[in-house]
């Protein structure tokens, strides 16, 4: 009765420890981390790459852009990821962090663009908003409507309270939660953009300005709808007085039921997003750790698959999932940079 | 002194009230049980009614003429030619047999979206395995495209929106009536890893990942937990240090699981340089998380062994160690096992600590060892529940059913073990 128990315990312990020490470090799978916005595109490429080549399917982790850079820049070696995705450009501070940790040669790949739309049901009238109006409708604290450089709790209940030209309907907007990359981008581009149209806010110190611009209202006019953009789309189709905030790809899939508001007079279309005429647009990137190419099998090949015309071209399979492609000349140039693994200098940031 | 008659009267009068009280008390209990049962029933009905369609797959079975000319291929054993060949063309051609009028570019595009996105890969893999098939006609079963599958399974269900064009709907109806499009048991779900295409996605990768992770957790947490409990209960001197350790173990049991993830990230990945996303690290983190539970329940089990047994053993000359190993441990074993299983069940459903050590990831390959990248069942469910494609809704619910089945199997095994080891005194 006892002996086997004891033997088991000892075997289990030593077995466990020897496994730990055997920590095999060679790796044959490409590791990708980074933005949750790029994740749906990158997973499609990864799966195709795994099925069409003899390389194993790359492993993708959705860590957010900032988290991705942190992991990516931690160092050279197979315990660190090979590629990081980002829904914004690398910051120069991040580039320096990479340099400090020995991640010197990095290739930047701009994969395309993504727009964030404010949409409502086709049964209602199309809204025409400016970033300033968006900020006034959704910020927690707004400049006093009576005038003066004072902030007051958001007093607006109806769109017409902000501007007589807007419909006399209650402000009700559904959007993504703070954990979402779409929310980050919306807050940074749309809210901050609208907020900075007020001179005294722009004159504030950066930290204070951000806290004013980035705080969404919590009195029920802005509803956090969870990460599932599908749910927002379904709600919009049912309720014609609600607006929703989500990525352009969801608008495309549901254009039968919902329509996008124009912002500063520009309608979101693949063209206006690609040339950044539409104000709430951002570029998507990924970054390759050049030192890992040729060490971890498949790193460069995966990047080549991503930058092939069949994937990110005008008729590529990434367009089907909602990517807005770069103009062809940018694509050709970037694809060449990937083939040559042209490193960044740091000056372009 | 008091009048016995009025005393009895007092009791009789209060009797009705006391009976009433008791009845109400019982009713509260029944109500509580009913609420619990009702919630459970609602949960199960919801999961099963949403998820049972996840076990059904939609297939398109076509007689594909593997025409070399159409695919730009004259030797299927030449890898260079294979890389450049067009494997979608014969599939479209086979569908055109049914719809000879669909010849425009747009029509062809719609036809190619009847079968899943990886249908051409399937043709290529078949040709790669059997190069002599080139030129012959073969019957191949393809998974249907996600949108077709949603239409076949959920047309008319308000929870789903049909994304097929009207032409595609007509085609689907006709192919259904001809038996080309059919539904069957979804074996893909049990034999493959994750995919971005619902019709190709399976739970096997996550299931294997969970098994590997749980194996590590059990192998670390059970022996360490039991050893700690035995020492604390039987050997440790009753001083302040012991009290301090006790208090800390009890506190650890209430620490949010994400903290253990942070610990794992800092120690196992940061300090020891172990790779991310591997079952070893996941298992170690979950082992740390379950340790307090196992120690506490094991101590309770050891405490419940009657002192008379210890005294009797010592009385006939057994040493302290013999008492513990020969008598206390075997008697406490059922209780320890129960505690361990509770801890393991908790670990099985955990996602938060795994997020930090990289086990929340898109992984297609089935893990083949403790050091290959893996996810676990709850993570897979979480990933599917957040995916945009409609087909993943039912897969997420189907995944929950698999997770529950896993849990029930584990519990059943524990109960069986307990029954075998149980002794009466």
UniProtKB/TrEMBL annotation, chain A:
Domain of life: Bacteria
Protein name, entry field: Substrate-binding domain-containing protein
Extent of the signal sequence: 1-26
Keywords tagged on the record: Signal
Gene3D superfamilies: Periplasmic binding protein-like II
Transmembrane segments: none
Pfam family name, one: PBP_like_2
Span of domain PBP: 21-309
InterPro entries registered for this protein in UniProt: PBP_domain, Phosphate_ABC_transporter
Species annotation: Marinobacter aromaticivorans
From TrEMBL, chain B:
Pfam families: BPD_transp_1, DUF3333
Membrane topology: Multi-pass membrane protein
Keyword Transmembrane: yes
Segments passing through the bilayer: 25-44, 203-232, 252-274, 280-302, 323-348, 395-417
The keyword Transport is annotated on this UniProt entry: yes
Record CDD domains: TM_PBP2
Subcellular location(s) of the protein: Cell inner membrane; Cell membrane
Domain ABC transmembrane type-1 positions: 207-414
Protein keywords: Cell membrane, Membrane, Transmembrane, Transmembrane helix, Transport
Location, primary (coarse class): membrane
Family (UniProt): Belongs to the binding-protein-dependent transport system permease family. CysTW subfamily.
Classification via PANTHER family: PHOSPHATE TRANSPORT SYSTEM PERMEASE PROTEIN PSTA (PTHR43470:SF5), PHOSPHATE TRANSPORT SYSTEM PERMEASE PROTEIN PSTA-RELATED (PTHR43470)
Name used for this protein in its record: Phosphate transport system permease protein PstA
Taxon lineage: Bacteria, Pseudomonadati, Pseudomonadota, Gammaproteobacteria, Pseudomonadales
């Amino acid at each position: 009765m006892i002996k086997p128990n004891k033997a088991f315990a000892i075997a289990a312990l030593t077995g466990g420890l020897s496994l730990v020490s055997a920590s095999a470090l060679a790796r044959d799978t490409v590791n990708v981390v980074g933005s949750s916005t790029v994740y749906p595109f990158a997973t499609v490429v990864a799966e195709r790459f795994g099925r069409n080549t003899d390389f194993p399917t790359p492993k993708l982790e959705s860590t957010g852009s900032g988290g991705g850079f942190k992991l990516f820049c931690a160092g050279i070696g197979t315990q660190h990821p090979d590629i990081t995705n980002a829904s914004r450009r690398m910051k120069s501070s991040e580039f320096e962090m990479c340099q400090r940790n020995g991640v010197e040669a990095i290739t930047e790949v701009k994969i395309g663009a993504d727009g964030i739309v404010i949409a409502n049901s086709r049964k209602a009238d199309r809204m025409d908003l400016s970033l300033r109006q968006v900020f006034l409708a959704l910020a927690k604290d707004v400049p006093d409507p009576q005038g003066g450089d004072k902030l007051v709790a958001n007093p607006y209940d109806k769109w017409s309270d902000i501007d007589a030209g807007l419909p006399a309907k209650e402000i009700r907007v559904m959007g993504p939660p703070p954990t979402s990359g779409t929310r980050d981008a919306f807050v940074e581009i749309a809210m901050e953009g609208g907020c900075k149209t007020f001179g005294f806010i722009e004159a504030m110190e950066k930290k204070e300005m951000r806290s004013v611009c980035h705080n969404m209202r919590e009195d029920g006019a802005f509803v956090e709808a969870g990460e599932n953009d599908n749910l927002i789309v379904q709600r919009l189709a049912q309720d014609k007085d609600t607006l929703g905030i989500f990525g352009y790809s969801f608008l495309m899939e549901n254009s039968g039921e919902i329509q996008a508001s124009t912002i500063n007079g520009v309608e979101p279309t693949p063209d206006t997003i690609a040339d950044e005429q539409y104000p709430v647009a951002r570029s998507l990137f990924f970054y390759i750790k050049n030192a890992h190419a040729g060490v971890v099998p498949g790193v460069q090949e995966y990047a080549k698959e991503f930058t092939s015309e069949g994937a990110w071209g005008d008729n590529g399979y990434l367009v089907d999932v909602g990517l807005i492609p770069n103009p062809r000349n940018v694509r050709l140039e970037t694809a060449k940079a990937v083939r040559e693994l042209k490193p960044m200098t740091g000056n372009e940031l | 002194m008091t009048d016995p008659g009025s005393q009895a009267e007092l009791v009789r009068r209060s009797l009705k009230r006391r009976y009433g009280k008791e009845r109400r008390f019982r009713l509260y209990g029944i109500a509580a049980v009913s609420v619990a049962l009702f919630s459970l029933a609602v949960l199960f009905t919801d999961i099963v009614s949403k998820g049972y369609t996840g076990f059904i797959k939609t297939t398109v079975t076509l007689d594909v003429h593997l025409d070399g000319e159409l695919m730009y291929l004259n030797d299927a054993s030449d890898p260079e030619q294979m890389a450049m060949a067009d494997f979608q063309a014969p599939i479209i051609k086979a569908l055109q047999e049914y719809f000879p009028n669909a010849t425009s570019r747009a029509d062809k595009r719609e036809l190619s979206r009847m079968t899943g996105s990886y249908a051409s890969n399937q043709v290529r893999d078949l040709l790669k395995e059997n190069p002599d098939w080139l030129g012959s006609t073969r019957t191949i079963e393809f998974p249907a495209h996600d949108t077709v599958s949603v239409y076949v399974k959920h047309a008319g269900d308000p929870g789903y929106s049909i994304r097929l064009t009207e032409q595609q709907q007509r085609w689907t109806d006709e192919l259904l009536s001809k038996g080309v499009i059919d539904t069957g048991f979804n074996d893909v779900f049990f034999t493959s890893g994750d995919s971005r295409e619902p019709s190709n996605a399976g739970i096997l990768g996550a299931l294997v990942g969970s098994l590997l992770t749980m194996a590590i957790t059990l192998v670390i947490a059970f022996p360490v937990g039991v050893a700690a409990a035995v020492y604390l209960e039987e050997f440790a001197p009753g001083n302040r240090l012991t009290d301090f350790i006790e208090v800390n173990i009890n506190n650890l049991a209430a620490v949010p699981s994400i903290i253990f993830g942070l610990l794992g990230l800092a120690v196992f990945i940061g300090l020891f340089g172990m790779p991310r996303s591997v079952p070893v690290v996941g298992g170690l983190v979950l082992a740390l998380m379950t340790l307090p539970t196992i120690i506490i329940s094991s101590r309770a089990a050891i405490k419940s062994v009657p002192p008379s047994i210890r005294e009797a053993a010592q009385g006939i000359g057994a040493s302290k160690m013999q008492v513990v190993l020969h008598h206390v441990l075997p008697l406490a074993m059922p209780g320890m096992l129960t505690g361990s299983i509770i801890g393991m069940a908790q670990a099985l459903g955990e996602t938060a600590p795994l997020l930090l050590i990289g086990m929340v990831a898109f992984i297609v390959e089935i893990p083949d060892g403790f050091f290959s990248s893996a996810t676990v069942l709850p993570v897979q469910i979480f990933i599917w529940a957040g995916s945009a494609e409609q087909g993943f809704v039912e897969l997420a619910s189907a995944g929950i059913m698999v997770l529950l089945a896993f849990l029930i199997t584990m519990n059943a095994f524990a109960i069986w073990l307990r029954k075998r080891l149980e002794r009466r005194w």
